Every structure is written in C-alpha cells, then in structure tokens.
C-alpha cells in the first residue's frame, strides 16, 4: 500500500491515494488490499495463520483486522479494476467453499469461511457500497458470538463438537443456529445480505455471476450443516465418564 502511494506521488506530485493515475499503483493497491482481506488468490496465509493462533487472536483477525482494508477498498474501489475485484470475489467464494470441505480443525474452517464471506463483499463492492458494508457487518456480528462460544467450550476440532452438550445444551443450540446463519440458511440473519446481493446482481443484469455465487455458496453451507449435525445430532464414540456440567450446581 505504501509502495503504491509512493508511485502515485511520483506521478501526480501529491499524497492522495484516492486519485490513483498510475496503472501499476492501482494494481499494487488492489493486490495489497486483497492480501490484507484474505481474498483469493492471495489467501494462502490466512488458514495457516489462524491455525497457529489462539481463538481470541483468531477473533481479532477475522473481525477487527478487516475494518481498515475494507475502508480503503470502499474509498478506492473506483480507482481499481472492477473486473479484477469481481473475479477475486467470485474466486474467493469458490475457494472458501472447497477449502472447508475436508477440514477437521475448526480454526481452518473459520478461515475458509472468512475467505468466502469476504468474497461476497468484494463481489458486490463495485455495485453497491452499502451492500458491501452490510455483508461485512453481518459477518462480524455473526462470527463474534460463534468465536466466543468456541472459546467458552474449548472446541478445537470437529470431534470436540460431539461433547459440547455436556457443557451447556442451550449454548450448543445457539452455536448450531449461528453456524447455519453463517451458511446463509433462511430465515436466519445470514441469509439477508446474500439475498440482497443476489437481488442487486440480478437487477444489474448480471445473472451468470449471481448464479455462480448462489451455486458456490452451497459448498460453504454443506460444511456448516456438517458441523451443525456433529454438534447437535451426534454423541462422542466413547461415553463420557463425568456428570454433565450443566447439571451441576455452581
């Protein structure tokens, strides 16, 4: 981002990143923001970094860290290539869905979920800034309680999901609803930004793009439903030897 600003300053003579006249500076800024957001094909760092951090750090990375690059992208989207951003967004939704299918580590699943959701935001940001902001806001509001529940129950893998009911049946139910909401299953909250995004794309006669997003998001919905199934409808292979925690008086 700084290098793009320097190149633009050499061309225009002013430090104004909102008016990029150098094509190379525009490309560098687009790639830099995509890497900060974790958009494909510059997403490779996100799953590995999240896997090596704690859940609290993961929560900060997938929520707070996205605000600054998103703000820059909202301010400079008209200075960059619309086709490039749309392609990155669509590719992110596809890779986010495919990457999460064979994962058993919850932090990696969350990483690919972040890639897919920010792909939706990047796809619509060139058509409607308000919808892009709505996508990011809904993602943060839904991801935060999910991460807090994972921190509270100390779940790290999909196998840990089967023993969560011993901690709190109510929390298990809420976590399941949060997962389905992230997947965009109606009538939950996560369905709203996806619905409005598809409606906007259809209004602008971008039916192939809307169809591609709708189909690829089914991949993400599949592993969300798999997690929900493991969380609410299965039990551990070996019965627990301790009394359910939620029955104990504290």
From TrEMBL:
Q: Which reaction does it catalyse?
A: a ubiquinone + NADH + 5 H(+)(in) = a ubiquinol + NAD(+) + 4 H(+)(out)
Residue ranges crossing the lipid bilayer per the database entry? 83-102, 109-126, 132-153, 165-186, 206-225
Tell me, what is an example of a GO biological process annotation in this record?
Answer: mitochondrial electron transport, NADH to ubiquinone
Q: Where is the NADH dehydrogenase subunit 2 C-terminal domain?
A: 221-249
Q: Which GO terms describe its cellular component?
A: mitochondrial inner membrane
Q: Where does it primarily localize?
A: mitochondrion
NADH:quinone oxidoreductase/Mrp antiporter transmembrane domain residues: 16-219
Q: How does it sit in the membrane?
A: Multi-pass membrane protein
The EC number(s) this enzyme carries: 7.1.1.2
Q: Which controlled-vocabulary keywords does the entry list?
A: Electron transport, Membrane, Mitochondrion, Mitochondrion inner membrane, NAD, Respiratory chain, Translocase, Transmembrane, Transmembrane helix, Transport, Ubiquinone
Q: Where does this polypeptide localize? A: Mitochondrion inner membrane
Record function comment = Core subunit of the mitochondrial membrane respiratory chain NADH dehydrogenase (Complex I) which catalyzes electron transfer from NADH through the respiratory chain, using ubiquinone as an electron acceptor. Essential for the catalytic activity and assembly of complex I.
Q: Can you name this protein?
A: NADH-ubiquinone oxidoreductase chain 2
Organism source for this protein? Elgaria coerulea
């Amino acid at each position: 981002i700084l290098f793009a600003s320097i190149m633009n300053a050499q061309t225009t003579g002013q430090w104004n990143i909102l008016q990029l006249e150098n094509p190379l500076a525009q490309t560098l800024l687009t790639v830099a923001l995509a890497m900060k957001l974790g958009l494909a094909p510059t997403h490779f760092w996100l799953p590995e970094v999240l896997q090596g951090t704690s859940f609290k750090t993961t929560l900060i990375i997938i929520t707070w860290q996205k605000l600054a690059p998103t703000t820059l992208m909202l301010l400079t989207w008209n200075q960059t290539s619309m086709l490039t951003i749309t392609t990155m967004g669509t590719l992110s939704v596809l890779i986010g869905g495919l990457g999460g299918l064979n994962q058993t580590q919850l932090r990696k699943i969350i990483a690919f979920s972040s890639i897919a959701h920010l792909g939706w935001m990047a796809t619509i940001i060139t058509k409607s800034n308000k919808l892009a902001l709505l996508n990011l806001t809904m993602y943060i509001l839904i991801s935060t309680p999910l991460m807090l529940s994972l921190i509270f129950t100390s779940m790290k893998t999909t196998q840990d999901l089967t023993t969560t009911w011993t901690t709190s049946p109510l929390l298990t139910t809420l976590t399941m609803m949060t997962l389905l909401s992230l997947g965009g299953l109606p009538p939950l909250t996560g369905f709203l930004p996806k619905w409005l995004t598809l409606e906007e794309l259809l209004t602008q006669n971008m039916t192939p793009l809307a169809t591609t997003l709708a189909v690829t998001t089914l991949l993400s919905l599949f592993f969300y439903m798999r997690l929900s199934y493991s969380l609410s409808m299965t039990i551990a292979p070996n019965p627990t030897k301790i009394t359910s925690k939620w029955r104990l008086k504290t």
